[in-house]
């Protein structure tokens, strides 16, 4: 029985595939063909099959799926669906074999297509539909050959006349689809995939493609709104988007009403189900949803891009759409979105500029609390600079950079007033009085309000600084005491400390220093200064190496505490200390030189008179060098105190007394002030000429220290000379006395000449020190003469106004850069001996 | 065979053919429903699919050739 059925089936197969007898074909040729086919078939069937093939249903299905994934992923999905349904069907025994058969026959040439010589394109119904949906270019190419649509329709297993499902059915299900809900005709197979019925004609498919877009976008956005947000702004974005989605749903609802109404009026007998007359068609739906689709598209773009952005960056993103998109619809849409979306951001802003508190739990504002400071000392030391910072990338584009700076300053100042100046009462009053609702949209008003807030806070802060914390008084005091502005006080202090400080640093005691300081204050005009200032003044010893004398380690200190320390920072204190030490050294040298001069002058009337012309000559030249030194020190002091400090002070005053001066401006002005002083006051660490010139170039500070050291040595030698001369004097006196008393005695006069004299050594040393002082001074003058700074050049001129010195110019300066190194080497060589 | 069972089985069979037809369409096998059911019944009878594939391919070749011949003949006729 079975072989019979096989033979029958094979017969069927042959007749189905091999064409029947043609109109002008002989009976015999057809018969021959038929027989040939039969024989062939029988031969193949009877030959033993390939044993390699495994009769495994999953294997066949897998290979089909793999093939489909390569060519068309959506088909692969559909196939899995079909496959599972097939497995559920009970009737077939060898499913794997059928699947294998289909797999083996896949992509075989279409037997019904016109044979190759006549036709170039061989469309088949299913891949044609595919290709059209994907590729418009191919579509055009195919449309050119007109015969093809006809063949296609013939091929279509369903036929053209009956569209399954009908347009009315689709229309009925459309509202569900637009809301992202699966329906029978248009099921959502996956999160982001809508399955169209496979049996629809091409135009309908393209319309449904258009309608599928808003549906899929809606689904995605809906899912996005459900995801948890990290941060207030992201939350608000979700809420704004779901608001927009709600209005989209309203549109869908209206559409649904229209569809229902139209479907109820449907006339079954009219062509195409009478759908053309009701006024609602799929095409109309496309038109009605077009604008909403654009909105959804934009929303989904925003949602996607906001994934890895936060806070101000999202605002910037949306604001870019609002401000720089050419499409007015898009711009208006984004603008609308911004209005509701930015509310939490403005809330943070409001809190910041009216309360001075940063309430930003998820770090979305552009002001951030600095957290990476591990040493608490530094935080404590500079609340103003280190507590908050601006995160540049978080500044949204709705405010300008300059404005962001302003906002930052307002909040910072309020915070500072509240926490560091302990004036929270005022802040609270202010926030109650001034607080306003800030909203996106009216940028101009917001700016005006912020400007207002800025002015008020800055004024208040400066007021506090000036009256409560007496910033300017402190600055004045620093200048008077640390920068030696209060001359009588410094002179008195030095005089009373001089004897003490000549001793080594180990024997300096704090109580003596403070006692002398107290004495100096009482004895000078400083006593009229406010006790608030004097309380902060302190004298102490620096921690210096063992063996120094008191002069080197003595220092005056002016204690600054919070919140003024934001202006006079640690760095500022160091600079003050540096300047003080330098000035103190100059002052000391001046003091020493002047006292020596005084001694010499008084001494020259009596003890220094000598009959020896060599001694007289030495004293004369010594006095000359001494005068030179005094002149030098005087000029230097004058320059630093008046040209540098006073003028910088004037500048500082001008800057900080300005009308709209902020604390930042004060800090900056003060920094500039100190920098000016250290730079112009020859304390700068800058190298003398070209920074790249030479490493061994010394700074002005080094040069000056050397000169000052020479002066001290010179003075020591003068003291030696003085004591020698006075000893000589007394010996002469005694000799004279002896001569008078022993006039009668003989001899004894020669003994005085035999005493070994240290005079030549002293004379030599004085001469040597004098010349090296002069050389150093000339080098210094040479350097000063080529300074870019006018004031410093002027110092050189003042020191050498009558051209008594020859400013020594270094050779390397004039030489070209090529010979500079050689010249420098030469100069060092000559300098060595 | 009991009578009431038959339409049920028939429906199942036609469902299976439906599914297979769709798969065939996806794979571009170019088999219509009739041919597909013939093939299914052949395989159900125990014909090895490999052989069947060969059969179909051979037959299609013959058909192709025949058609070309017919066409040439038709062209020759029309020219005449």
UniProtKB/TrEMBL annotation, chain A:
Main location per the UniProt record: cytoplasm
GO biological process: cytoplasmic microtubule organization; meiotic cell cycle; microtubule nucleation; mitotic spindle assembly
Pfam families: GCP_C_terminal, GCP_N_terminal
Sorted UniProt keywords: Cytoplasm, Cytoskeleton, Microtubule
Origin: domain of life: Eukaryota
The Gamma tubulin complex component protein N-terminal domain, residue ranges: 171-468
Keyword Cytoplasm carried by entry: yes
Start and end residues of each stretch annotated as Disordered: 810-833
Residues in Gamma tubulin complex component C-terminal domain copies: 471-805
Localization of this protein: Cytoplasm, Cytoskeleton
GO CC terms of this entry: equatorial microtubule organizing center; gamma-tubulin ring complex; gamma-tubulin small complex; half bridge of mitotic spindle pole body; inner plaque of mitotic spindle pole body; microtubule; old mitotic spindle pole body; spindle pole
Molecular-function annotations in GO: gamma-tubulin binding; microtubule minus-end binding
Biased composition annotated in UniProt, kind: Low complexity: 814-833
PANTHER family for this protein: GAMMA TUBULIN COMPLEX PROTEIN, GAMMA-TUBULIN COMPLEX COMPONENT 3
Entry similarity comment: Belongs to the TUBGCP family.
Protein name according to UniProt: Uncharacterized protein
Organism: Hypocrea atroviridis (strain ATCC 20476 / IMI 206040) (Trichoderma atroviride)
From TrEMBL, chain B:
Organism: Hypocrea atroviridis (strain ATCC 20476 / IMI 206040)
Function: Required for gamma-tubulin complex recruitment to the microtubule organizing center (MTOC).
Keyword Cytoplasm: yes
Protein name: Mitotic-spindle organizing protein 1
Similarity-based family: Belongs to the MOZART1 family.
Gene Ontology cellular-component terms listed: gamma-tubulin ring complex; interphase microtubule organizing center; mitotic spindle pole body; spindle
GO BP annotations, alphabetical order: gamma-tubulin complex localization; microtubule nucleation by interphase microtubule organizing center; mitotic spindle assembly
Location within or outside the cell: Cytoplasm, Cytoskeleton, Microtubule organizing center, Spindle pole body
Keywords: Cytoplasm, Cytoskeleton
Principal subcellular localisation of the protein: cytoplasm
Subunit structure: Part of the gamma-tubulin complex.
InterPro entries per record: MZT1
